[in-house]
Design goal:
The chain is mainly alpha-helical and about 400 residues long. The protein contains 14 helices and no strands. The chain has one domain: Cytochrome C Oxidase, Chain A, CATH 1.20.210.10. The longest helix has about 35 residues. The two termini are about 20 Å apart.
Length: about 400
């Protein structure tokens, strides 16, 4: 009976194009390709090339697409794939996966031409994340695994922030736009902290043959509670001196808690293991970013925009590249061995983050050079990923298993 079932499953699996056999395939490859394209476009637009004919505010487009276009695509791919491991129920595949990835892609392609104020662009873009949330909630409710349900409401919160960003563009309220994008960047950093806490110590223990450090309950609550609270505070608190000081304090506490949390994950053992050190260094951008945000609130010589790039160009870029490099190998049935150029890609993405965040603080006169170097390093890093992982993500698993 089992054999017959397995043959049926294998037949069904073989009818599905490999790209749509599990969420990580289409979203990791699509997200990485899109981030290369969007960053290259941004660089050319900054140089005066008229490549976004429909877009009325290119700065809005850049922030929106890197957060909601790139960042959320990778997160969707990750949770749609992980949910199968957590619940034991097969992940979404085939035409439903093709449908939501198509809904993700359409607004990305339409926006440069039709613009951010186009109704169809907005509707399509506000549709895909709630669909992902629905697909995530189903298996969790089925097996009553309430701990993992929080991803579904979180995706709905991101949808609300996305809607708010469109409202800000519509009303030309650029302060609201900046507040919304910064909140979204903090929320993604908080999500990376949640996921990182689950996988970084686990991957490190597996990769170094050591015991996984037991999480300290109070530290976990402080680290995660403070980052979620300050994310909410960033969105809703009025910008008065008193509230700014309170929020800056909260951010500083969060930064300290995340530093202590990271220090417990055997960082020293990761030397010489790129798949591990890239995640540890990427995570380090989170406390740095939280401190930078606190400094921006107190007007300590750094803008909110620059501070938020510690979380986006830094944490989001580095952790994502490290995660997709590893998860793609594991879920395609391949050994966790990196090709040499991928180590170069890790170094490039860390450089992109550091150039974008540190150089403007050290040499404000070099800002346009900073944008060029940082964007080029980013495009090269994710371009290398696409080049190396294209065959891995578009071909069946190496071990012949479904997925």
């Amino acid at each position: 009976m089992v054999n017959h079932m397995q043959i049926m499953d294998a037949q069904r699996e073989n009818e599905i194009v490999p790209l749509f056999r599990l969420g990580f395939r289409v979203f990791f490859l699509g997200g990485a390709l899109f981030s290369c394209t969007a960053m290259a476009l941004w660089l050319l637009v900054l140089r005066g090339a008229p490549l976004l004919p429909g877009v009325s505010n290119p700065v809005w487009w850049h922030a929106h697409e890197m957060i909601f276009g790139f960042g959320m695509a990778i997160i969707a791919g990750f949770v749609l794939t992980a949910m199968q491991n957590w619940t034991g129920i097969p992940g979404i595949r085939g035409w439903p996966l093709a449908l939501i990835s198509g809904l993700w892609l359409l607004p990305r392609l339409l926006m440069p031409l039709r613009g951010e104020l186009n109704t169809l662009v907005m509707l399509l873009d506000l549709l895909w994340l709630p669909l992902v949330a629905g697909f995530l909630a189903q298996p969790v409710i089925q097996v009553r695994q309430w701990r993992n349900l929080f991803f579904a409401p979180l995706l709905l919160v991101m949808t609300l922030l996305n809607a708010l960003s469109y409202y800000a563009a519509f009303t030309h309220n650029w302060l609201l736009a900046e507040r919304t994008f910064t909140t979204a960047a903090l929320a993604i950093a908080a999500l990376i902290a949640v996921m990182g806490g689950r996988v970084i110590p686990f991957f490190t223990a597996r990769g170094t043959g050591t015991d996984k450090p037991e999480p300290v309950r109070a530290l976990e609550k402080l680290a995660l509670g403070s980052i979620w609270l300050t994310t909410l505070g960033w969105l809703i608190l009025p910008r008065t001196t008193l509230f700014n000081i309170l929020l800056a304090l909260g951010l500083a506490v969060a930064a300290l808690a995340h530093l202590v949390r990271l220090s417990r994950w055997h960082n020293k053992l990761t030397k010489g293991i790129p798949l591990l050190w890239v995640l540890h260094l990427g995570y380090l951008f989170i406390p740095a970013g939280l401190l930078a945000m606190a400094a921006a609130l107190l007007n300590w010589g750094i803008t909110v925009s620059l501070a938020s790039h510690w979380l986006t160009a830094g944490a989001m870029g580095t952790v994502i590249l490290g995660m997709i490099a590893r998860v793609s190998l594991g879920h395609s049935g391949r050994p966790l061995e990196l090709k040499k150029p991928m180590v170069t890609a890790f170094i490039l993405v860390i450089m992109a983050g550091l150039i974008r965040t540190l150089l403007p603080m050290l040499a404000p006169g070099l800002t346009s050079l900073v944008y060029d170097l940082s964007a080029l390093a980013w495009v090269a890093a994710f371009g290398l990923f696409c080049r190396i992982y294209w065959p891995i993500l578009t071909q069946p698993r190496a071990d012949g298993r479904p997925g």
